[in-house]
Amino acid sequence: MRKIQSTINASSAEFRRNFAHNKRLAAEFRERQEAARHSRPARDLARIAKQGKMRPRERIEKLIDPGTPFLELSSLAANMAYGGEAPSASCIAGIGIVAGKETMIRADDCTVKGGAWYPLTVKKIVRALDIALENRLPVIHLCDSAGGFLPLQAELFPDRQMAGRIFRNQSLLSKLGVQQLALVFGHCTAGGAYIPALSDYSVIVRGTGAVFLGGPPLVRAATGEEVSVEELGGAEMHTSVSGVCDYPAATEEEAISIGRDIVRLWREPNKIAGRREPAEAPAYDPEELYGILPDDIKRQFEMREIIARIVDGSRFHEYQPNYGATLVCGFANIWGFKVGILANNGVLFNDSSLKGAHFIELCNQNETPLLFLQNITGYMVGREYERRGITKDGAKMIMAQSCSRVPKFTVMCNGSFGAGNYGMCGRAYDGRLLFAWPNHQIGVMGGKQAANTLADVKLNQMKRGGEAVDRALVERVREETLAAYQEQLSAYYSTSELWDDGIIDPVDTRNALGVAISASLNAPLGEPGYGVFRF
Amino acid sequence: MTDPAVTALATPSRTKAPLFRKVMIANRGEIVCRIARTLRQLSIPSLAIFHDAEAGAAHTRVTDEAVEIQGETPVAAHLDARQIIVAAVKAGADAIHPGYGFLSENAAFARAVAEAGLTFIGPDADVIALMGDKISARAFAERHGAPVAPSAVSEGHIDAFIAAAAGIGFPLLIKAAAGGGGKGMKIVRSQEELADAARSAASEALRYFADGRIYAELYVERPRHIEVQVLGDGQGEAVHLFERECSVQRRFQKIIEEAPAPNLPRETRERMLDSAVRLTRAARYRNAGTIEFILAPDGRFFFLEMNTRLQVEHPVTEMITGVDLVRAQVEIAAGQGLPFRQSEIAPRGVAIECRICAEDPERDFLPEIGVVRYLAKPEAPYLRFENALDAHQKVTADFDSMLAKLVAHSETRDAAIGRSIAALRELVIVGVRTNTEYLARVLAHPAFRAGDLHTGFLAEHAQELKSIPPDERTRDHVLIAAALGLRDFREVAFGAPEPHATIGRWRN
Amino acid sequence: MALKLTLAGRTHLVEIVRRRPRLVLSIDGREHEIAAAGEGGDGRNSLEIGGDSLHFVRAQVGDSQLVHLKGRGYEVGWVDPQAEIADAGADHDEVKSPMPGRVVSVSRIAGDRVLRGETVATIESMKLQMSLPAPRDGRIAAILRAEGDAVEKDEAVARLEALSPGS
């Protein structure tokens, strides 16, 4: 593998303009993240302190091994939903090291509406458990939730991917032999009660922890029975009478300590053997990513410069360097793990699509995880390309990618428009993890194209109806469409809806991928084989 | 580098046939090891005794044989004279060395040993009895020209005693006539305190020693405790082996002894040695003995008592004279007379003994118990580390708290102090709290270095002798050493997988 | 979780700051780089901290680490975050029969002081005798069943009370 020779001029006006722009985007992301993590009404915080409870992030910090990373997922989930009432979708999910083992940590956030589950909370929990399933990651649930947010129950309860999926996933995890531990710090009400019940181990804190299908008010309404929280589902009862929970703990600290002891007992992970080479920092400063990414989504940039700031030693073995040049393919190491990288350097043509499909096959053959670095406006359109079968070549890439048995990871480095999103392992393709940079935009087509398309449609309607062409109306359609589009195109909207596993600061990409790739090796590779390729 | 003081101890026996068939060492711990060493040099088989609680202890392994003795407690077993003599006879021993403590100054035991046809390696029972009673010993000393402190004895009514005691003047020391150690001792500084102190001393004496007689003497302020080592042949001939300074005491018990006594005017030393030899001769004393004196700052000294046995601190004398006192004891007991004439010995250099005790100097020297988890003994040609310690040994409250003695010799007192401190730092006993560091602090104290000693030395300098908390850096190092000793912590520190361990604490 | 250690009556926080390239520990916020971490376990050992090469002896006794360093001995205690569960019986005042059976003997009377684990009574059930230990240190407040009495599962045979301070 050769070191990529960077041609970036860090003192150029363009670089500096880009740098300022992207640095600002990163800062804005950090601000939003900070607010989502820590900005809470003083009243709620006071209540939690009074109960002697820790905040969920404190619990996580105490749970994980000191001096190890925690890869938080979807920190800005729900940031554009519910009027901002459910920061981070009122729960935390991430991959962390507990007693030396990689685990999925999932925590209710009792600082937001008592940890009530909003529809996006459920979506985030289900996603966290999907990740656990796909990567065979043991799960630690830090339970402290009042239950489903009743006003929105229709959006969180009944459907296939809604609340029931949480318990279905827990069951499947168990079937696969993936351990789960529940630390019950607060209430686990209604469906939430199944979380500790479906975990292999559970610890419950005396005084504050409680588990029940129906809380005291519901019991009173249903049967007229008067019963206290402690009696109905407290630590003493569940650890000595019902057997729903296993260990009582006097304090949250003690519960965490017992939890860590339990995780220590778990068998060592049986990771797929891949050669891991000694890690090496990139030869180029990742901070320069800010100056490479353009300040305008429309402007093309060199993906090899991005790769050079993510991979070990900036070393890259490029495959078919002279063929299908708009898709850069090649091998590199990230934190010592070998990966096959596909990165967009322009629109996908027939040759670049064929190259991509072939390279994906090589990675599957070689058991090398795939990393997609997206900046794609789509496959080439036009008579010439249709005649050459751009659709069937694009389909080959989708087929190869969809049927891959190796773990796949995607980073949305910039735009992700149209069918290019599919070939490059968009959300629908079950990549193990998908991250987006703050400058990322996503849509079936770009905002301007969409606005123009809709304005043209309006214009044609007018023309067909024989109306006088109202230019002002067409312009209004164009602007309204653009505005609506712009909001939905943004990375914040995308991450709010959990179309990704979180926005990350570009400079964090290497670490995020290191943790992600390492986690993915806990699951065995899928069955080899593809469907029918159209030649 | 070999010190002649030490090699002299190892010179082979001058007789060919062993002096005894087999010698029982009726004791335990370091002194058994010490005595057994000499017996081996003399080719005399040795026999140790042990209670079940001491099974396998070092002192039972250094002798040729060891027999178990029974007893409600280990101490009771070691005090069971009859049983011990029966065991000695049964095992074919023809002599018993009593060591120090236990039965070593028990006249009845000495008598019973003799009656059983065995040799008691020590003085006659009558001499033991004479010297064992403070009052008779004092009277004897007075009769034979040894200076004695003005005193009074409670022979009859307590009031008469109080009146007589008041006549001596204050301050006064009141103690049990039959007592030893510090039990029942009281210092009375005024007439008003006297009556109460006398009554309570009498009742304590009765309780501890079943003998309510008490005894008052002039109390010397800032006294030094100096003792003279003597050897007598039992025929009226005696020699001395110079003096020992034993002033450094806590709870009336010595912890540091040295020979010779520092800053002792030659003339005072001469008078003291002479006085001791005269007394020994007068008593027709046989075997090794020690005459203890109290030395006042003005140079006056008074007879205190005579110990009719080998002293704990005998090694300091051995190291400056090159004489093996145990061998001398055995030879004298075997009827060979004194091993040398007075003119044949001269002191050389300075020797210091530190008593390593299981105790907490920070808590009034209260005895400590525990299990020795790790043991590293200092070693050097100029050192004697007298001990019976084993790694994993239990230290219980069954016996005296003294674990070992560390004796260092050098040409000068400063050098001996330096060697002692270095050896104390080399000594590692982990698992039982000891006074090792305290002893090093005492030795390093300017007043000790200056030889400005008296029996209140430790109390006077208590504040400066307190342990100083370690500096922050050392404390951090200790905490790190401890943390890295915890298995769980090591697991967390070294068990993190890669790449996470390298990524470190990273939050996205 | 931070490790809590005690030394000379003070509690200190030991935290892992970094592991690579070398282990860095923080003691109450002061960072120390460990160049060589020695071996685990008891006995003679060595460490390299910062530029200092340390030779020491360590022994674990119960929850304490005895460390002998530079001629001085130290006792370092460990604060067990689960100390309270170790006293899980602490709020249990009753000596309960784990099986239905019959009281064979009662070894204590009301007012007796008992230590955790000491037998208070013995019951027989299914031809098997088992002793019922005191769940914690305390004083017997009442003996509730006499020899020969039948007991149900989880029935209290005796009740404990806390020792009053100073007793």
What does this structure look like?
The complex is a heterotrimer of chains A (535), B (508) and C (167). Helix content of chain A is 41%, strand content 18%. Chain A is an alpha/beta fold. In chain A, the strands form 2 sheets. In chain A, strands 1, 10, 11, 12, 13, 14, 15 and 16 form an 8-stranded mixed sheet that branches. In chain A, strands 2, 3, 4, 5, 6, 7, 8 and 9 form an 8-stranded mixed sheet that branches. In chain A, α4 packs parallel to α6, α14 packs parallel to α16 and α18 packs antiparallel against α19 (471-489). Chain A is globular, with a radius of gyration of 25 Å. With 508 residues, chain B is an alpha+beta fold. In chain B, 36% of the residues lie in helices and 23% in strands. Chain B has 21 helices and 23 strands. Chain C is built from 1 helix and 16 strands. With 167 residues, chain C is mostly beta strands. Chains in contact: A-B, A-C, B-C. The A-C interface holds A 62-63, 65-67, 247-251, 253-254, 256-258, 260-261 and C 1-2, 15-19, 24, 81-82, 84-85, 88.
Termini gap of chain A: 32 Å
Low-confidence stretches of chain A: none
Largest beta sheet of chain C, briefly?
8 strands, antiparallel, barrel
What Rg of chain C do the Cα atoms give? Answer: 24 Å
Mean pLDDT of chain A: 94
**CATH-wise, what's the superfamily of the largest domain in chain A?**
2-enoyl-CoA Hydratase, Chain A, domain 1
Number of domains of chain C: 2
Largest interface in this structure: B-C, 44 and 47 residues
**CATH architecture verdict of the largest domain in chain A:** Alpha-Beta Complex
Question: Count of helical segments of chain C?
Answer: 1
Proportion of beta-strand residues of chain C: over 45%
